């Protein structure tokens, strides 16, 4: 049983925290990277509150672990100017650099950040409450993603390192950068999700302005030197502060060529409208989702419960790919709920560094209260909390709540909870959950649990036209990173995978000439003497 008192007892005294997991001290960051130098900010800063609370003689206190700069419009525009200069209308050193040379810069960056693993993992735990295991996984997965991106670019460049002759025209088709990219990542995967846009944008020859999320800021501090030392001046620039202060001047300048944003559709729409020529700005967006699971009467309930618990509660349900609505056939609903409640009871709440921990403190201010509002609203409309201690809370802890039966009158039916609340709705006719997916504003993924191949096949065909990934007997998820990651409706714009991301941050460009002798000699001379980085038949190994 996880009562509020028992949850409160999980917050340790500082002396009980193993030295290897303790914060070495406050990190009061003043540095930010612009035009190849770490500048020092002497203006206002924001205090960073950890979701981790400690028991002190004064009671349980949320820990203040540092601060970061609140830059103003002037500094934001200085970062923009640096990125624009480095790109120089496509004439800059970085956008005109040979692909093999850009790869070497990214490899140098990768080499430098490997030594920062311990610092980044510790800050992931203290800044956003991510478990040690998941924090290590996020760092390691990011390293793997960068390696895979390098390999994918090599494959892409090899395929482009040849000339085509069609209808008497010689042509070489490659991908060219788009310009200045504004990268804004999410708090739930502040390293990995940010790098899934930042790294492909960089390696394709764009220059970047990078704004960390409001939560998960300090963990990027150990990487600033690597960015500074691995790339030419102005290629990578960082801005910190309130989005309402620093983003509007960047966008209204009209000099942002690509917006790479992972967050809510509401914010994405607001940002996009601030650009004076939005049709000229490419958007790469990862947005809201309300992924549903459909548990059919012939489903393997042990498997379905295992995957639904993982899907709904990994990192406390704070994932766009989380399962946020479960539809269960009435014939198996009672059995499913009993097993689901039992599986939730087996999850271990605790501090991020505790062995085997599953439920950790929530980083967003006021998040437990918002989760409690969802529970109260569902209860007013006829649902009940069916798992023991569901909805118990203390400070930054919120124990997962399983709600049943959920219906269309409840906020949970349509709103993305992004937290440890599991709504379960019964159905008799399969048309009900299918209609829910069809009518939803979101179209990222869906999970189907069942064993009848004919039934599964009949569901797959319409659902693939509503969402971008249908998972059979498994939770919704992003990986592997070689698979396309996309969404329909309000869930995304653009496709992200290791190879798709390279394409989305570049445009197909070609050099062409009539297949006449003078042109053949001209192109041959350029290629043989390596006088162009674009016109080239070099093969990258």
Layout of helices and strands:
Blueprint (H helix, E strand, L loop, with lengths): L3 H5 L18 E2 L2 E4 L2 E4 L4 E12 L2 E11 L3 H15 L11 H15 L3 H12 L3 H29 L3 E3 L2 E9 L2 E5 L7 H12 L3 E5 L12 H7 L5 E3 L4 H10 L5 E5 L2 H9 L8 E5 L4 E5 L5 H13 L9 E7 H16 L21 H14 L3 E2 L7 E2 L2 E2 L2 E4 L6 H4 L6 E7 L3 H9 L2 E2 L1 E5 L3 H11 L5 E4 L15 E2 L2 E2 L4 H7 L1 E9 L2 H12 L13
Parallel strand pairs: 1-5, 8-9, 8-11, 9-10, 11-12, 13-14, 13-21, 14-19, 18-19, 21-22
Antiparallel strand pairs: 2-3, 4-5, 6-7, 7-25, 12-24, 15-18, 16-17, 20-23
Return the domain count: 2
Helix content: 25-40%
What class, by secondary structure content? alpha/beta
Number of helices in the DSSP assignment: 17
Q: Averaging pLDDT over every residue, what do you get? A: 96
* DSSP strand content: 15-25%
CATH superfamily of the largest domain: Aldehyde Dehydrogenase, Chain A, domain 1
Major sheet characteristics: 7 strands, mixed
Give me the Rg, rounded: 25 Å
Number of strands: 25
Give the N-terminus to C-terminus distance in angstroms: 58 Å
CATH class of the largest domain: Alpha Beta
CATH architecture group name of the largest domain: 3-Layer(aba) Sandwich
Widest sheet: strand ordering: 15-18-19-14-13-21-22
Overall 3D geometry? globular
Low-confidence stretches: none
CATH overall fold name of the largest domain? Aldehyde Dehydrogenase, Chain A, domain 1
């Amino acid at each position: 049983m996880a009562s509020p008192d028992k949850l409160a007892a999980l917050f340790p005294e500082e002396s009980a925290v193993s030295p290897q997991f303790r914060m070495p001290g406050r990190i009061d960051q003043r540095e930010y990277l612009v035009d190849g130098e770490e500048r020092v900010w002497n203006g206002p800063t924001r205090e960073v509150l950890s979701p981790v609370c400690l028991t002190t003689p004064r009671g349980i206190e949320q820990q203040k672990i540092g601060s970061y700069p609140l830059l103003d419009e002037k500094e934001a525009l200085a970062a923009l100017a640096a990125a624009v200069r480095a790109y120089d209308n496509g004439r800059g050193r970085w956008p005109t650099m040979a692909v093999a040379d850009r790869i070497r810069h990214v490899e140098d960056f990768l080499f430098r950040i490997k030594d920062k693993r311990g610092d980044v993992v510790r800050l992931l735990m203290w800044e956003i409450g991510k478990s040690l295991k998941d924090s290590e996984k996020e760092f390691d997965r990011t390293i793997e993603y960068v390696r895979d991106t390098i390999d994918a670019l090599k494959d892409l460049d090899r395929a482009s390192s040849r000339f085509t002759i069609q209808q008497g025209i010689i042509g070489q088709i490659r991908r060219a950068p788009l310009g200045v990219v504004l990268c804004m990542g999410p708090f739930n995967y502040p390293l990995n999700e940010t790098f899934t846009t930042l790294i492909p944008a960089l390696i394709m020859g764009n220059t970047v302005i990078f704004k960390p999320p409001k939560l998960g800021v300090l963990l990027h501090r150990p990487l600033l030197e690597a960015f500074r030392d691995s790339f030419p001046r102005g290629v990578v620039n960082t801005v910190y502060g309130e989005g309402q202060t620093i983003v509007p001047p960047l966008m209204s300048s009209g000099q942002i060529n690509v917006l790479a944003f992972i967050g809510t559709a509401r914010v994405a729409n607001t940002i996009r409208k601030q650009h004076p020529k939005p049709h000229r700005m490419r958007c790469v967006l990862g947005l809201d989702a309300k992924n549903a699971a459909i548990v059919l009467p012939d489903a393997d309930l042990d498997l379905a419960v295992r995957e639904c618990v993982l899907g709904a509660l990994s990192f406390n349900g704070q994932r766009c790919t989380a399962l946020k609505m479960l539809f269960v056939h009435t014939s198996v609903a009672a059995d499913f709920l009993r097993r689901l409640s039992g599986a939730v009871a087996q999850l271990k709440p605790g501090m991020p560094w505790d062995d085997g921990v599953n439920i950790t403190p929530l980083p967003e201010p006021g998040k437990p209260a918002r989760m409690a509002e969802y529970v109260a609203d569902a209860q007013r409309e006829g649902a009940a909390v069916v798992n023991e201690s569901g909805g118990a809370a203390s400070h930054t802890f919120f124990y997962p709540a399983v709600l049943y039966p959920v219906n269309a009158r409840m906020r949970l039916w349509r709103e993305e909870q992004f937290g440890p609340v599991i709504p379960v709705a019964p159905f008799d006719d399969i048309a009900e959950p299918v209609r829910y997916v069809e009518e939803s504003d979101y179209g990222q993924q869906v999970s189907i649990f069942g064993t009848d191949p004919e039934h599964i096949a009949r569901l797959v065909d319409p659902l693939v036209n509503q969402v971008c990934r249908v998972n059979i007997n498994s939770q919704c998820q992003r990986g592997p990173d070689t698979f396309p990651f996309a969404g329909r409706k309000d869930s995304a714009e653009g496709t992200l995978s290791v190879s798709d991301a390279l394409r989305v941050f570049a445009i197909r460009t070609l050099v062409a000439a009539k297949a006449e002798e003078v042109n053949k000699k001209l192109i041959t001379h350029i290629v043989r003497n390596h006088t162009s980085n674009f016109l080239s038949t070099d093969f990258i190994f």
